[in-house]
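Pasting as-is:
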Amino acid sequence: MANKPYNIGIIGYGAAAKVFHIPLIEVTPELNLYAIVQRNPTSENDASKAHPGIKSYRAAEEMVKDDLVDIAVITTTPATHFALAKLALENSKHDVRRNRFATNPKAGGLTHTPVLVEKPFVPSSQEADELIALAKKHDRLLTVYHNRRYDTDFLTLQSLVKSNTLGRVVEFESHIDRYKPTFANSKPWKTIRQPGGGAIYDIGAHLIDQIVLLFGLPQKITGFTGSQRAENAGGYDDSCTVLMHYADGMIATVKVAVVSPEEKQLRFWVRGERGSYKKYHEDPQEAHLTAGKRPGDPGFGIEIEDHHGTLTVPVESSLSLKSERYPTLQPTPDTTYKAIYTQLAAAVAGKGDVAVMAEEAREVIRLIELAKRSNEEGKTLDV
């Protein structure tokens, strides 16, 4: 008999849950959307109406007492991540003697409660350390939703770097620049200064994670954070530039901007001894999910040809150069954002690791802290 799917309990019902988590859970056969915590539903925004048949809770404290919740997913604002992850990790409902898979634990049985936390992991590396220690103490899986590891353009660039097509990389630029000079239509928590807030945590965390995944930790870091918007009463740091200095001389630059009036926004510009890769436009998965598409739908995650990058390489052994369009990799079921959940289900079943280790996400937070401190002190810091 086929194993039952693991029941997912989601804490939070904002844009993150609706766009980046629920659609992926619902197309992952090994998982079942079982419960949602929504504190204040309205007639226009009610999880129980949008997803008939789920268990609806008003507080996380209620959901973690439900023995049928197999995996907890935290999608609330960053400032709440630590307390909610701690609550989920400390909950002992899935002792093997009590959980519903205990009759056959080797065939998909749980001996721990997995917890997935939306990015950014937590506001501080100290909090990350505490959660990692707590997960180990209670034998729990803990992972973080760094979905942009599965951006198709990043996967394309990753293949170029790993195949040494670009040679020794000397400069690596990663941008998410937009033209949003006012706070119009911004979420309230993205307009005020608070723990885990600001562009460096919101978007910078993704870009830093991608760079560390490719090249490891830098030797030094220089950070600049602040606001490009003229009106910013809440003091929200809407932009950042981070320079990651590597021992071999490479400089990796992370740049997030909100005042970038360009028709085509630069995404990657990577230069090496054997070639360069330059690309505009963001990966299409976020736009596709926002529009209601899901992995498996025709065209999901496939980038239009006009948005492909450009590869420039020397002509044979000369110093002459040639440039040509370099196709972005087409996603497979294992290389879209859905992969986070596919791998989570496999890890719970004892068939592999989660896509993002909590320790990796912790290092991203530590680099963010150093970049912010660098900005405050006006100097480059050792990592």
